[in-house]
Design brief:
By secondary structure, the protein is an all-alpha fold. It folds into 2 domains: about 100 residues, Tetratricopeptide repeat domain (Serine Threonine Protein Phosphatase 5, Tetratricopeptide repeat, Alpha Horseshoe); about 90 residues, Alpha Horseshoe (Serine Threonine Protein Phosphatase 5, Tetratricopeptide repeat), CATH 1.25.40. Helix 5 packs antiparallel against helix 6 and helix 8 runs antiparallel to helix 9. The longest helix has 19 residues. It is elongated, with a radius of gyration of 18 Å. The N and C termini lie far apart (about 45 Å).
């Protein structure tokens, strides 16, 4: 089952990106389809219908809407309105990553991490982090902490946790808070 908070975040993310002005006329139909898809997904202004949301989003992605291309990966990854298919999720995320989308790069990192392909995960997380994705910084830290795909280096991990926390990444903030409570007690 998909997380409704993630669906709403997709909607809010899309609304923030609309000011980019790239191919506005050509993509207006795609934007309309994508927006309608999000409304179907979360039940805003119409009944909630994940399958219809997927179909509308598929049309929007076909029209070239960048947000819809990213969302196609999400639909396949989470099995929303369609059977889960990690190969198709990866294909759509890669297409979105080629368009420069940091969340697609992050998602590719997560897929690689889930498949224990840690070197690939590190590559994707680094690419996303270079594009400003704070959550990727946190995941790079996790890879260093656990020694997955790299030599375990807790100092390096904490450096990445701090970078992510400085960009207000909640998981990094929680991790640093936990570490400060637990490591300071054992040292003192």
């Amino acid at each position: 089952m998909y997380n409704l908070d993630v669906a709403i975040a997709l909607s809010n993310y899309s609304m923030r990106r609309r000011g980019d002005g790239v191919n506005r006329r050509r993509s207006s139909y795609g934007e309309h389809l994508y927006s309608h898809s999000l409304h179907c997904l979360i039940g805003r202004y119409m009944p909630k219908d994940p399958r219809q949301s997927f179909l509308l989003n598929s049309q929007a992605a076909g029209s070239g809407n960048h947000d819809a291309v990213l969302a196609m990966g999400w639909f396949y990854h989470n099995g929303v309105g369609v059977e889960p298919d990690m190969n198709l999720a990866k294909r759509w995320y890669k297409k979105s990553a080629r368009q420069g989308e940091p969340w697609a790069m992050f998602s590719l990192g997560q897929l690689a991490n889930d498949q224990r392909e840690y070197a690939d995960a590190m590559v994707w997380f680094k690419r996303a982090a270079e594009k400003g994705n704070a959550r990727s910084l946190f995941w790079i830290g996790k890879l260093f902490w656990k020694g997955h795909g790299v030599r375990a280096d807790r100092k390096q991990a904490i450096t990445f946790f701090r970078k992510a926390a400085a960009q207000k990444e909640p998981a990094a903030r929680r991790t640093l808070k936990f570490l400060s409570r637990n490591t300071l007690r054992t040292k003192g």
